[in-house]
Amino acid sequence: MTATPLTLQPRAVDHPVDPSVDHEIQAIVAGETTTATCNTDLAAGPWTFDSRPGYGPGSSMGDVIPTGAPRQGQLPAEYREADEAELAARIVAAKATLGERVVVLGHFYQREEVVVHADYVGDSFQLANAALEHPDAEAIVFCGVHFMAETADLLSRPEQAVILPNLAAGCSMADMADIDQVEDCWEQLADVYGDMETPDADGLVPVIPVTYMNSSAAIKGFVGRHGGIVCTSSNARTVLEWAFARGRRVLFFPDQHLGRNTAKAMGVPLEQMPMWNPRKAFGGSTEAELADARVILWHGFCSVHRRFTVDQIAAARAEHSGVRVIVHPECPMDVVDAADEAGSTDYIRKAIAAATEPTTFAIGTEINLVQRLAAQFPQHEIFCLDPVVCPCSTMYRIHPGYLAWVLEGLVAGEVRNRITVTADVAVPARVALERMLAAKP
Ligand code: SF4
């Protein structure tokens, strides 16, 4: 296959970098730039696509709406019609009025206009832990996506309200592992392996379920009930070692790429990593393949990270001598193999911060983070491997208008968009999270 030639547009190091991806998207909408976005809905402007209240759009807009998925009503006109400066002023004023009563969390992939108001910026687990630093805050406003708000609710005190400013901010990857499908998968695996609870002569059960943090609370609860554990992109290897000490094999969901990249680095052969497609009997594998499996990979992926390609890396190397390519482990295996390094968002941030000489970095992760790093470290040349402007389009739904709306609601004594995990799910989900915290290399 012939490689597609790519023209990358690295950020100029001698000019200040605008960290706002939204400004770039609005320039595309206005026809002021020839750059493109990956999603025509984003190029329609936030209120045009948000005029269809509900789930998506974004990475998962072509998918069936998951059962019980939260629905967002339309934002009142006073917020939709306010400009960026007015919304910023209203957010600042509401936060000042609320003081210590509220803590605002901003994910690394969140848009800059929201992140500037965050008390903490980090990955989903760092932010859930940051909320623990504020046990007296009445409300935790989580500017991320739905599963992140659920995790914060699991770890926060019962009387604290966790708020997701836009209920339509889901995660397409998390939605790819539906609890009914996972329960069905477990029953089919029991048909192949027999008793799933009783250890064999070596003290190992047939399967340990492992879920990535990017999954619903229902999946974390399932994992907790079946002797399993949660992992992050930072500790996936440690968690898999924990699981292999207790089981013959691992059922890993929802992200096939994180599972495959991690297990491959641990020496698990690819032929012992069958994929589980929930729409097929036995996930699409034979019983013999399942019997031989070490890691069963759920058929899930991140729509943002799967856009990165080996061709983009080749283009970056051709155009930038000495470029250092770092990608996220949610990228496909061939991309991780072609990169110089792979690591979590925190790894990427620390790697750039630790570089003492001016360096050119080509980064394979979500563009809001890349753009912010480029602005934060002007001594380096930092650009996104993907030449198209492609944010996490579900997280992009947390427009500042929604943040202003929930904060002013709190000022008025009204809790809007509270995310609550029911006790039957929360208790086993916390068990799975506690196992992760206790798993040490
Ligand atoms: S970047 Fe991917 S995995 Fe992360 S929230 Fe967005 S869709 Fe989900």
Summary?
This protein is an alpha/beta fold.
Please provide a written account of the structure:
- The chain folds into three domains: 46-170 and 396-421, Rossmann fold (3-Layer(aba) Sandwich), CATH 3.40.50; 175-303, Rossmann fold; 305-390, 3-Layer(aba) Sandwich (Rossmann fold).
- Mean pLDDT is 90; it is low at 1-14 and 55-63.
- Helix content is 39%, strand content 13%.
- The radius of gyration is 22 Å and the shape is globular.
- It has helices spanning 21-29, 46-49, 77-80, 84-98, 112-115, 124-132, 146-155, 172-175, 179-193, 217-225, 236-244, 256-265, 287-292, 310-319, 333-338, 345-354, 367-376, 400-411, 423-438, and strands at 102-107, 120-122, 139-143, 161-163, 205-212, 229-231, 247-253, 275-276, 295-298, 324-327, 341-342, 360-364, 381-384.
- The protein contains 19 helices and 13 strands.
| Most strands sheet | 5 strands, parallel
> Ligands bound here?
iron/sulfur cluster
Shape by Cα distribution: globular
Tell me the name of the CATH homologous superfamily of the largest domain.
Answer: NadA-like
Number of helices: 19
What is the domain tally? Answer: 3
Task: Pick out the low-confidence regions.
Answer: 1-14, 55-63
Number of strands: 13
Average pLDDT over all residues: 90
Q: Class of the largest domain, according to the CATH hierarchy?
A: Alpha Beta
Could you say which structural class the secondary elements and strand pairing correspond to? alpha/beta
In the CATH classification, which architecture of the largest domain applies? 3-Layer(aba) Sandwich
The fraction of residues in strands falls at: 5-15%
Function: Catalyzes the condensation of iminoaspartate with dihydroxyacetone phosphate to form quinolinate.
Keywords: 4Fe-4S, Cytoplasm, Iron, Iron-sulfur, Metal-binding, Pyridine nucleotide biosynthesis, Transferase
Protein name: Quinolinate synthase
Family: Belongs to the quinolinate synthase family. Type 3 subfamily.
